[in-house]
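sorry for the late reply, my laptop died twice this morning and i had to redo everyting from scratch. anyway the thing you sent over, i finally got around to it. pasting the sequence first so we're on the same page, its 91 residues, then the predicted structure underneath. double check i copied it right bc i was rushing
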Amino acid sequence: MGSSPWEIIWRVYLREAVPGITRGVTITIVSLINFTAVAGTLGAGGLGNFAIMYGHSKNLPQITWTVILIIVVLVSAVQFVGGYIAKKATH
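ok and here's the structure:
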């Protein structure tokens, strides 16, 4: 068709790969959120540490449930945005 190899890569291959790349990035971000929450429960800081220190140790279950709700909402938002971008990029 008269396209150079770089034009084929940018105009064909990359356009076809965007949904897969988006799904991979979404899974990676969700995994990182999960890993940081688990690491926080072990003392690394962050939301997991906050839930353990103030919710579990001080016997305040409403704080623990609030942190869990924040993590679930954060993961749901990331998955929704990632799915929306992947759906829009799919032909």
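Helices lie at 5-44, 47-56, 61-89.
thats about all i looked at so far, will dig more tmrw
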